[in-house]
Design brief:
The complex is a heterotrimer of chains A (358), B (273) and C (618). Chain B is mostly helical and 273 residues long. Helices cover 73% and strands 0% of the residues of chain B. In chain B, helix 3 (52-86) packs antiparallel against helix 10 (195-211), helix 5 crosses helix 7 (141-164) and helix 12 (227-236) runs antiparallel to helix 13. The longest helix of chain B has 35 residues, at 52-86. Chain C is 57% helix and 10% strand. In chain C, strand 1, helix 13 and strand 2 (318-325) form a beta-alpha-beta unit. The longest helix of chain C has 32 residues, at 53-84. The chains are: A alpha+beta (358), B mainly alpha (273), C alpha/beta (618). The interface between B and C is large, with 106 and 113 residues.
């Protein structure tokens, strides 16, 4: 992956009427990157994508593509293509006509177009569907046609707006692998929008977590998962125990009245913080061997693991474990210092509200 | 009791109604059309259309109604597009604007046009005040076309608008995204997708325009007989057989029009709503 | 820039749509009966509106009809959707196609089909026939709005209700109905509006004794609409406009539910107007109140002082159902087919002869009409031309056909019909839009009898009329009056009766009976054979023959009265002795009465006249 900025969004703001959607957003995308904009609905991720696609123009700020300012360029002049949420296939055309649409506009030769159609259909595993009508296909098939229609134009960047949102679970998982494979084969940049954190974690090189028009965190999936920068990210990515705590000193945090060892430093002394502990990182041991004691209050079988709730020091801990512990059992709770993530308390009420929203 | 039997029982009042008041009246038209005053079979009423005075009137009706349908389409399509792109929150508001005039009786509105377009009428007085020459189209085919366009324009706008707002923004965006400029998008995507609405609109405008007798009466000064006027005159002159015969001829055109448009419009005018 | 162009386009279209409405609203405040001629501001049409029973009645009928047909159509249409939805594909699509026929077919064909049906099965046209027709053409609109909702019904919800212990009926009412309610409501609304605005189908299926606003307006269109009608339309329009604005006011978040609520409000608004309007007076055919008898009168438009009806009703206690026709031929069709039932009618000479020959008339018992002696004997003598034994007809009005011209526009003496063929007056000539009167002009000019059946003569006359067509501004009936008053034409063919009124309104107008001769006509009251209220009909004629009543009518309609006693009462000497109103014998000698030409003669004239109609006008 090279580090050149292919797309650079500079100080972008956008509002609809009184609703501020994006507030002074800065973001760049590198060549060949699979970048995912992740966040709840209304966070501005789709608007960001539409700005890049050219379907909206920003109130302020610039969009730089390959060194050129494309802020005012209409979509048909931009060297990128979009895969829309509900596919947006042209229902009055056949599959072949759909795929050929962009190529015909570029006045490509017939044989070139035919080859491209064949190639694209093969790529999305739908060879032989040329003459079917668009609306006679299943959702997953339509989705793949939408991708084929976009990639035959050999865009530098493919924008994908929640492309798997309408598919069922199994199909969604299959398509995730398909997309990764496609990206490898095509060697182009993918900008992917989703509200599904699992999708984001599975496919992305980089994840941009957004909420209410602001970027909350940018990082690799591992960074985002393991070291969320604030409660919103922690809560939005996976299940978490987010517990009010006090940083006693470097590497020591007091959680629910008990001191825990951790690896974080530089928060100062006796500062209120939030401690984030992933449920799979909570280790259940004999009552006496844990840091604190508790009692299992509920138990659900989840397939690969059990999910339990443990009442300890007045807090209901979410715990995931492959080991079954019956309800009512007295247990001890232990956490590896590496698995305790310390976050600053939200400073303004605004941020608080954001955090509580989820 | 068998569910289907039960359903047919519930359906029966309606079926009786449509047989009695839709099918049978049409059979009456056919009966009168093919008989003379004494009830003997004759082709005379239908064959009358071969006489110059009748086919001329029919031809004039066809010409004027095709022309006014085209003008309606040309006026309505951009209008519907503009309205669609305005993204007015409630669709009801648009419908409201075009349905509202119907609360002023259409005879009165057409009559008002007569007063506006008449020799020394409102428009002429206005033009005279501005030292402009008088504008004389009253009592000409142009006035009739004008009246038709006025009366039937909403029936063209609404179905097209209703289809256009159903087109997903992203379908249009997708075309743009794939490199189409605005007019290519219009030609290749928007217009093909709105064909059902256009078809509905054509039915809703062409048929009443073809068969009107009121507009030609009020704005044509009685100088221009459309096929509708002839039928209405035959009824007035108590020649019901001839009126029925000519109605049969008229229905051929209506059916042709419906067959032509049915290709595009599966809802049979349903896009009105 | 592009946006400015779009806005201009929108504004132009809106102007186009609403300009005539503006003109009509303007006209409702105009102190002139003529649309497009401003005489100053007035509110009098609004006050007169509430005294005009005829208009108010037609309003009540219209609203009553629209409400009832919308209700029935909604019930039937909804039932149709619910049952159709469960049918197999083929019967379903057949029924669906039949349902849509009235919506896709031409209104004139639908109207005619209904008329033939009702006449064919011997049902006389009435409010019920209009209702049936309206229900039938409203149903497709209901089906169109309800069907999509029915198809979306979630059967699970219905089953859930059953599962929770609801009976089928209860589940239907509580679960299914609310689901399809928005469709039902908008179907109702659409039906209501369609019924309200319909003219053509009502025109063909209407019975006697009532008018809807549309049919009333149509009758009035040709002679100038009464300004009260503008006032009423303005009130209706503004009311609906304000209501709809209020309903549409909160555009914030349009959820399915608020839409639903909006339609509900709209319905409530319409319902309240309906109740209000119907409440102004009671019922449509009801409201008979204390009347013991009734009489159905069919008269020419604007051919009676409305005050006379009120006086008659007050004195005799007989309810008058008063209706107007436009041409003799139109009247004949209605009466002869038995489409509507009338008691007493006022046709012209030749038409009376036709009705006598076709056995439609009852002999008048002159003993019961004591005032019939007020009619001058010379008129009875003249009436022998079409009623040889004076058994059927009591003369009511008479006059000549002649040319009305504007002295400022015509600079030569007008003595001959020839002037109507003078290129100089191209587009300034108004001709009569009725067969006999048009042929009267052409045949008189040629020196032939106006009752000729000689095909060569008719051929010649037809050619003459076709030649004249490019010169003619319009073929009209009573509109000659308003147009000439407005100085919109230089010459017009018209009945002498209009002349006095027109001269009163415009000093520059002059009337003349051309030297070649013309038609002298008599309109008289006759009683129909099928009349069920003969006694009331006789009382009606008796009343109209009273000198003071005849004078009232003369003052109002300005058509010459054959009532010598009434003429003697005319105060204005100039009018009493006017040769327009009461032409002397030198004029009458060159005039001829129309005779009935037999049904073949009628068809002959009709086919020639259609040829004129279809001829090129340029």
């Amino acid at each position: 992956m090279n580090n050149d900025k292919l797309i650079d969004l500079v100080n972008i703001s956008k509002s609809y009427g009184k609703n501020l959607i994006l507030d002074d957003l800065n973001l760049y995308v590198r060549e060949n990157e699979f970048i995912t904009l992740l966040g709840p609905s209304g966070c501005g991720k789709t608007t960001t994508l539409r700005l890049i696609g050219g379907f909206e123009s920003p109130d302020t700020g610039k969009i730089i593509f390959d060194g050129k300012d494309i802020t005012e360029l209409p979509p048909n002049k931009r060297q990128l293509n979009t895969v829309f949420q509900k596919y947006a296939l042209f229902t009055h055309m056949t599959i072949a006509e759909n795929i050929a649409f962009g190529l015909k506009i570029k006045k490509k030769s017939k044989s070139y177009i035919d080859d491209k159609i064949k190639y694209a259909l093969k790529l999305v595993n739908l060879d032989g569907y040329e003459n079917r009508m668009a609306d006679s296909l299943s959702g997953g098939q339509q989705q793949r046609i939408a991708i084929a229609r976009a990639i035959v134009n050999e865009p530098k960047v493919l924008l994908l707006d929640e492309p798997l949102g309408a598919l069922d679970l199994k199909l969604r998982q299959d398509m995730q692998y398909e997309l990764i494979r496609l990206k490898e084969e095509l060697g182009i940049t993918f900008i992917y929008v989703t509200h599904d954190q699992e999708e984001a974690l599975t496919m992305s090189d980089t994840i941009v977590v957004m909420n209410q028009g602001y970027i909350q965190q940018i990082g690799t999936p591992e960074d985002i998962y393991n070291e969320p920068e604030n409660a919103f990210v922690a809560d939005f990515i996976g299940d978490s125990n987010i517990i009010p705590a006090t940083m006693i000193e470097d590497k020591v945090v007091e959680i629910l009245g008990t001191k825990f060892k951790c690896v974080d430093e530089g928060f100062g002394k006796n500062k209120p913080v939030d401690a984030v502990i992933r449920p799979e990182d909570v280790i259940l041991v004999e009552p006496d061997k844990g840091i604190i004691k508790g009692k299992v209050t509920s138990l659900i079988f989840k397939g690969v693991h059990y999910e339990m709730e443990v009442m300890a020091n007045g807090y209901e801990w979410l715990v995931q474990s492959t080991k079954l512990v019956p309800v009512g059992t007295e247990v001890g709770i232990d956490v590896d210092p590496f698995n305790i993530q310390i976050m600053h308390k939200p400073e303004s009420e605004d941020e608080e509200a954001v955090a509580l929203d989820e | 009791m068998n569910k289907r039997v039960k359903n047919s029982i519930y359906a029966s009042p309606y079926v009786v109604w449509i047989i009695a008041f839709i099918i049978i009246p049409l059979l009456f038209i056919a009966y009168y059309g093919f008989t003379d005053g004494e009830g003997n079979f004759t082709m005379e009423n239908v064959a009358a259309i071969t006489q110059p005075m009748y086919y001329k009137a029919l031809w004039l009706s066809v010409e004027l109604s095709v022309l006014s349908t085209l003008i309606c389409l040309l006026l309505a399509y951009p209008l519907a597009l503009i309205l669609r792109n305005m993204h007015i929150g409630s669709k009801g508001f648009i419908v409201f604007i075009f349905i509202l005039p119907m609360w002023m009786n259409f005879l009165l509105r057409t009559y008002a046009w007569q007063a506006i377009l008449d020799v020394n009428g409102v428009l002429d007085q206005l033009l005279a005040a501005l030292n402009l020459p008088a504008f004389n189209i009253i009592n000409t085919p142009a006035a009739i076309v004008f009246g038709m366009v006025y009366d039937f324009l909403p029936f063209m706008v609404l179905p097209i608008y209703n289809v256009l707002i159903k087109i997903d923004d992203n379908t249009i965006n997708a075309a743009r995204d794939l490199g189409a400029d605005y007019f290519t998008t219009l030609r290749k995507i928007i217009i093909p997708l709105s064909l059902p609405g256009i078809a509905s609109g054509i039915i809703m405008v062409f048929v009443p325009a073809l068969t009107t007798f009121v507009i030609s009466d009020i704005l044509g000064g009685g100088k221009l007989l459309l096929i509708g006027n002839i039928i209405e005159n035959k009824v007035k002159a108590d020649n019901l057989n001839m009126a029925a015969g000519l109605s049969l001829i008229l229905m051929i055109f209506i059916v042709l029009n419906m067959m032509f448009t049915a290709k595009y419009d599966k809802s049979e005018g349903g896009n009105m709503l | 820039m592009k946006n400015v162009a779009k806005k201009i386009y929108l504004v132009l279209i809106m102007l186009f749509l609403y300009l005539p409405i503006g003109v009509l609203i303007f006209a409702s405040f105009n102190d002139s009966k003529i649309l497009g001629k401003w005489n100053g501001f007035t509110l009098k049409w609004y006050t007169q509106l509430f005294e005009n029973e005829a208009i108010l009645n037609s309003l009540r009928t219209t609203i009553f009809l629209a409400t009832l047909s919308a209700i029935i159509a909604t019930v039937l249409g909804t039932l149709a959707c619910l049952t159709m939805n469960r049918m197999r594909k083929v019967p379903k699509s057949i029924i669906m196609s039949i349902t849509n026929i009235p919506m896709l077919n031409a209104e004139i064909v639908t109207g005619l089909a209904f008329m033939l049906l009702f006449v064919g099965v011997g049902m006389s046209l009435s409010l019920s026939t209009v209702l049936i027709a309206h229900v039938t053409f409203c149903i497709p609109y209901v089906v169109l709005s309800v069907m999509p909702k029915v198809q979306q019904i979630d059967n699970n919800m219905y089953e859930a209700a059953l599962d929770l212990g609801a009976s089928k009926a209860y589940a239907f009412v509580k679960i299914t109905m609310p689901d399809i309610m928005p469709g039902i409501l908008s179907g109702f609304l659409l039906s209501f509006t369609m019924s309200l605005d319909d003219f053509i189908i009502t025109h063909f299926t209407r019975g006697s004794g009532f008018d809807t606003l549309s049919t009333k307006i149509y009758t009035e269109v040709r002679k100038g609409i009464k300004p009260e009608m503008y006032a009423l339309s303005t009130l209706l329009f503004v009311t609906v406009f304000v209501l709809l604005l209020l309903v549409n006011k909160k555009p914030a978040k349009v959820t399915e539910r608020s839409k639903h609520a909006k339609i509900k409000k709209y319905i409530a608004a319409i319902a309240s107007i309906a109740i209000l309007v119907v409440g102004i007076g009671f019922g449509v055919t009801g409201g008979a109140g204390n009347y013991t008898q009734e009489v159905y009168v069919y008269n020419w438009g604007e051919y009676l002082d409305p005050e006379v009806i009120t006086m008659f009703e007050k004195e005799t206690g007989i309810k008058v159902h008063y209706e107007e026709f436009e041409t003799n031929e139109e009247m004949y069709t209605i009466v002869a087919t038995g489409a509507r039932n009338y008691d007493v009618v006022c046709p012209s000479d030749y038409m009376i002869q036709k009705m006598i020959e076709n056995d439609l008339l009852e002999e008048v018992d002159f003993d019961n009409i004591s005032t019939s002696d007020n009619i001058g004997q010379q008129y009875y003598d003249r009436a022998k031309g079409f009623d040889p034994e004076n058994k059927y007809c009591v003369p009511y009005c008479w006059g000549t056909v002649g040319i009305m011209y504007n002295k400022t526009m015509v600079d030569e003496p007008v003595t001959s019909w020839d002037i109507l063929w003078n290129e100089k007056y191209k587009d300034s000539i108004l001709m009569q839009n009725s067969v006999r009167d048009a042929y009267c002009v052409a045949l008189s000019k040629l020196g032939y009898s106006i009752n000729t059946l000689n095909e060569n003569e008719l051929e010649e006359a037809t050619q003459l009329l076709i030649d004249q067509k490019p010169l003619v501004q319009a073929y009209v009936v009573d509109q000659v009056r308003d147009k000439m008053i407005k100085n919109a034409a230089a010459l017009g063919v018209i009945y002498s009766g209009e002349a006095i009124y027109m001269q009163r309104e415009n000093d520059d107008l002059e009337y003349v009976v051309p030297d070649e001769g013309s038609n002298v006509w008599i309109d008289g009251w006759v009683i129909l054979k099928e009349s069920e209220n003969k006694e009331a009909a006789e009382k009606w004629i008796e009343f109209l023959c009273r000198p003071e009543i005849a004078l009232m009518n003369f003052d109002y309609i300005t058509y010459s009265t054959p009532n010598d006693a009434a003429r003697a009462l005319i105060e204005d000497e100039e009018i009493r002795n006017s040769i327009i109103a009461f032409p002397d014998n030198t004029i009458l000698e060159r005039c001829e009465v129309y005779n009935y030409l037999g049904s073949e003669g009628d068809d002959l004239y009709d086919s020639y006249w259609t040829r004129v109609g279809a001829a090129d006008s340029e």
